[in-house]
Amino acid sequence: MNARVMISGGGAAGLCAACALAKRGFEPLVLEGQARVGKKLLATGNGRCNLTNMGAEETRYHGDTKAISVVFQRYPPQKVRAFFRSLGLETVEETEGRVYPMSRQAASVLDALRLTIPAYGGTIQTEAPVATLRRNERGRFEAQDESGAIYTARRVLVATGGLAAPKLGGNGSGVRLFQALGHTSSASFSTIVPLKTDSTLVRALKGQRVHCTIAMEANQRTLREENGEVLFGDGSLSGIAAMQLARNAQEVLRKGGQPVAILRLVNGSTKEWIDELKRRKDRCPFYPMEDFLSGICPKRVGMEIVKAAKIALAKRADALTQDEIARLAEHLCAWRFPITGVQGFEHAQATSGGVRLNEFDWNTMQSKYVNGLFAAGEVLNVDGDCGGYNLQWAWASALTAADGIAQSLQKER
Ligand SMILES: Cc1cc2nc3c(=O)[nH]c(=O)nc-3n(C[C@H](O)[C@H](O)[C@H](O)COP(=O)(O)OP(=O)(O)OC[C@H]3O[C@@H](n4cnc5c(N)ncnc54)[C@H](O)[C@@H]3O)c2cc1C
Fold first, then answer.
1. Reduced to 3 states, what is the DSSP secondary structure of residue 205?
2. CA dist 207 to 43, 337, 340, Å?
3. Ligand 1 pocket member 241 (CB < 6 A)
4. Where would you tag: which of 36, 188, 215, 376 has the fewest CB atoms within 10 A of its CB?
5. DSSP state letter for 294
6. Of all protein residues, whose CA lies closest to atom 9 belonging to ligand 1?
């Protein structure tokens, strides 16, 4: 099949670029490896798709972040929202700058993209996982998929995403395609991913959720703190607040250090909580310890704190000693979980690492090594915090690449 522009990867970035190019009459061809496009997009934001963040700026990103300000100057979140509005998708801003489709359904975002492309003459080819990409003798790009089918085009955009969530299409093929064309990449690891801890510490808590502040500490120094929900799993701490700290934990582990996640279930100092627990003991002297913290935190969580503070569950509150009260207060204010690692790509929301961005012109997303080759999205070495930042990068880099492709094709006319 022959096209002017070929896009490898029908995810967020690939579909977005295809829409922009189709609307300008370039009839792009999207090659998607899976049976359907945008599978990961449907899973974003718990099915609601947190599609951008009004506070998106360089400080929210990791990797080759210098490209962020250049790309976001061209496509800040307001312009991304305007782009979606032009496709018929209205968006709303919720707390902390997070933007969602007004329908609160990720499917609306995918539909807007997927319906626009063919309407303007673009083609979506599914079950076409690109295995090789090369430039042929006539200077055209030639992609071959795993079935042996060959597609050619004058311009190619690789938007195959990262390694996160393999069931939703995450794989490392994009990096390999770029490497074959002379590009280099930095090592990849999973990010926005559950933290691993000693399973004996959390076994009894599996499935419990707490709203708290969670901090990552190493060498008695707090590296980062997040507020939000933490979910206890099978030897893991997950939930967005915990997952945001995975990067900090990995950095410490890579240097041979010992990261510790600290859960602060209550506000205030340990001293204030010692006084509070003393008053609680006087108010409820008849409580067995297994119920003593109910009303402050979920019962099973309260029981584990009592056990962690080395107090017998059957003991009555009026028998609590000063030391025991102090230990309980310490655990409520700073419950410590040594972190042994983070889970793999199958549980991750994003990939850290990828094709190096300094090998591309950030004003067009064109390769500095191969004319006519473009990149966008998570295949590149940039990843954002949780909160709409990763999709903002996918859209903004894709729209920049679409501009770059359009300009370069127009020059040839
Ligand atoms: C569960 C989950 C929830 C998330 N929630 C949010 C959120 O709410 N907000 C946010 O900002 N970010 C979120 N993210 C991250 C966000 O989804 C990604 O950063 C974003 O989708 C990256 O876009 P992309 O186009 O680069 O890659 P993808 O969206 O992953 O698309 C890549 C596409 O390329 C296809 N592909 C791969 N290799 C080939 C090949 N060789 N040939 C052809 N096709 C290929 C894949 O099948 C896939 O469809 C979430 C991620 C996960 C896993």
1. helix
2. 21, 17, 20
3. no
4. 36
5. B
6. 388
CA atoms within 13 A on the CB side of 128: 21
Nearest Cα neighbor of 389 from 336, 350, 358 is: 350
Full DSSP string of 209-237: EEEEEEEEEETTEEEEEEEEEEEE-SSEE
Cα–ligand 1 centroid distance for 36 (angstroms): 13
Question: What does the block give as tokens for 327?
Answer: 């230990």
pTM: 0.94
Query: Does any ligand 1 atom lie closer than 6 A to the CB of residue 388?
Result: yes
Tokens of 360: 């591309």
The Å distance, Cα 223 to ligand 1 centre, comes to 28
Per-residue pLDDT 10s for the chain (413 aa) are: 888 999 999 999 999 999 999 999 999 999 999 999 999 999 999 999 999 999 999 999 999 999 999 999 999 999 999 999 999 999 999 999 999 999 999 999 999 999 999 999 999 999 999 999 999 988 899 999 999 999 999 999 999 999 999 999 999 999 999 999 999 999 999 999 999 999 999 999 999 999 999 999 999 999 999 999 999 999 999 999 999 999 999 999 999 999 999 999 999 999 999 999 999 999 999 999 999 999 899 999 999 999 999 999 999 999 999 999 999 999 999 999 999 999 999 999 999 999 999 999 999 999 999 999 999 999 999 999 999 999 999 999 999 999 999 999 998 86
Structural domains present in the chain: 2-191+345-412 (3.50.50.60), 194-343 (no CATH)
Whether the Cβ atoms of residue 300 and residue 294 lie closer than 8 Å to each other: no
Of the candidates 151, 40, 48, the one whose C-alpha atom is nearest the C-alpha of residue 104 is 48
